[in-house]
Design a protein that fits this description.
By secondary structure, the protein is mainly α. It has 14 helices and four strands. It has a four-stranded parallel beta sheet, covered by helices on one side. The two termini are 31 Å apart. One of its GO terms (biological process) is phosphatidylinositol dephosphorylation.
């Protein structure tokens, strides 16, 4: 399982032989592999005008590209705002509330994220193929898919320590811009252009997994809520800044405490454990049918 940002082919469909060589080294002769692009084919095509684009088929003959469009940025933020507004209106009848919930499309985003992660996991597990995931910058929906795919496939990621390592590797060190994406909550009147609840969407998907597989995750809902709170407002430095370079320049590790150090104190750790947990070495395949995706009430 690999992740990257988009290739910078541009409108003239430039080649990057270093990229071609790098992806070629992980494949045996005649082996097939998959590129999962988290943009629609149209969005990927439009990205060429800004210098981005997709891998030319002629230059990557062993790779098959699959487009699975996942919303990011303003559309996802607006979806979450509509969800919060619907849940905050006590005057709604049940029918109207269900209509508002459906029109928010939040659960559709949850389903799309889980479906794409399952696709990546199936390519790895059932097709025994290499998988490269990318969208545009590779720091939003890309991380959403790779992190969920690892939870589905790898039982070590479902332990408390393993899940912390997954977050550190796939979200923090990989450069998800927490400062830009989590500047304000959905109930705030000020809405920045860069805000988007990608990390919350990931936590919601993890909750869906924990609900469908109540014995397979060592941690419970309380940990997910604590992570959400700390991503938006925290006494710790774990989610500060937008990338490792900014954290290094701001000396975050030297001047703040780690959230993980607090979570792993024995008296705190007990609060976040799932009492039903039993190690499950198998792959967990979630259902993404409409009746299986439920609203996370928190």
């Amino acid at each position: 399982l690999l992740r990257s940002s988009q290739p910078l082919t541009g409108p003239n469909r430039r080649r990057c032989r270093e990229d071609e060589q790098l992806l070629g080294t992980i494949l045996d002769e005649g082996e097939r592999a998959f590129i999962i692009d988290t943009r629609s084919a149209q969005a990927a095509k439009q990205a060429r005008m800004g210098g981005g684009g997709t891998e030319p088929k002629s230059c990557y003959p062993q790779w098959r590209r699959l487009h699975r469009a996942l919303e990011r940025g303003r559309p996802l933020q607006e979806s979450f705002i509509r969800l919060v507004e619907a849940c905050s209106d006590p005057s709604l009848s049940m029918d109207r509330w269900l209509g508002r919930l459906d029109s928010s499309r939040w659960l559709a985003h949850v389903k799309a994220a889980l479906s794409t992660a399952c696709l990546a996991a199936q390519c790895l597990d059932r097709e025994d193929s290499k998988v490269l995931v990318h969208g545009a910058e590779g720091t939003d929906t890309t991380l959403l898919v790779t992190a969920l795919a690892q939870l589905i496939l790898d039982p070590s990621c479902r332990s408390l320590e393993g899940f912390q390592g997954l977050l550190e590797r796939e979200w923090i060190e990989a450069g998800h811009p927490f400062q830009l994406r989590c500047a304000r909550s959905a109930s705030s009147h000020g809405r920045g252009k860069q805000e988007a609840p990608l990390f919350l969407l990931f936590l919601d998907c993890v909750w869906q997994l924990s609900r469908q597989f109540p014995f397979s995750l060592e941690f419970g809902e309380r940990l997910l809520l604590a992570l959400f709170d700390n991503a938006y407002a925290s006494a710790y430095g774990t989610f500060l800044c937008n990338n490792e370079r900014e954290r290094s320049l701001c000396k975050v590790k030297e001047s703040t405490h780690s959230l993980w150090a607090w979570l792993n104190q024995p008296e705190e750790r007990r609060k976040f454990l799932n009492p039903l947990y039993a190690h499950n070495p198998l792959v967990i395949w979630p259902s993404v049918e409409p009746q299986s995706i439920q609203l996370w009430q928190g």
